[in-house]
Amino acid sequence: MEKIKELKDKHVAIVGLGISQIDFVLSIENSKTWDEIWGINAVVAAFKCDRMFMLDPASRFFEGDDAGKTTEVMRKILPELTLPIYTCELDERVPAAIEYPLEDVANYSKCAYFNNTVAYAIAFAYWSEVSQIDLFGIDFSYQHNLHFAEAGRACVEFWLCKCMEKGITVAASPRSAILDSNVSAKERLYGYHRLNDPNVAVPHNGHWIIAPHSKLNAVLAEHNVEMMEEILPPEPYKG
Hints:
- With 239 residues, this protein is α/β, with parallel strands linked by helices.
- It has 2 domains: 9-180, Rossmann fold (3-Layer(aba) Sandwich), CATH 3.40.50; 185-222, no CATH class.
- It contains 7 helices and 9 strands, in the order βαββααββααβαβββα.
- The strands form 2 sheets. Strands 5-4-3-2-1-6-7 form a 7-stranded parallel beta sheet, with helices on both faces. The chain has a two-stranded antiparallel ribbon with strand order 8-9.
- Helix 6 links the parallel strand 6 and strand 7 (169-172).
- Helix 4 packs across helix 5 and helix 5 runs parallel beside helix 6 (146-165).
- The radius of gyration is 19 Å and the shape is globular.
C-alpha cells in the first residue's frame, strides 16, 4: 500500500470505546476540530469518522457473539459503511474493507508488536507521519480481564513512545490511564511526588518544562504556556 500523502503533518483524533470518549464529545461541543477522526470498531456507529480500524476479521462479528454487545451494531453497519475500514482480511460482507498495510508499517517502524487494535491505529499514524495524535476512549480499564488491560496498555504506550521520539505530539483524555493522564501532575514523577513541593513536568513545543509545583505558574508564564484544564460542558453564553 502506498502512503496516503495527505495525512503527513495532519492532526488526528483516535477514538476508542472507553469511557473517556466523553472528552471527545465535550471537545467537539467546545469547538475542537481535527483534520481527521479515526474510530476503533463500533465507535463509528456513534461518531462520524474518516477511517475505521477493525483488526479482527469480520467473521468475529458475523459468525458469533465473541464481540459481546457490539456484535449486533457491527453486523448492521459493516455492510453499509463507505469509509476506509482497515482490517486483517477482506470479506465480501464488508465492501469498504482494506487490508491493513502490516508489512509496510512493520518494516518502516522496524517493529511488529501489535496485541490490540488501537496499537495498529497508532502505528498507522506513525507510518503516515502525522503531526499530532489526540486519544479519547483509549483507557484499558477492563474490570474482568486485567491481563488484557495491562498488556494492551503496554503495547499502546510503546507505540506512543515511538511517536513521541519521532516528534509527533501526543495528547490523551485526562480521564484516561494512558500515559498516567488521569494522575495528578504532582503525582506523576515517582520519587519527586514524595517531596513537600513536588516537581511537575509540562510538555511545550517538543520540550519539557520541569519546575516545583509552587513555582509552576510563574515558569509557565515565562514561556507563555497555559496548563490544560479539564474539558467541561459549554455554559450558556450571555444568558
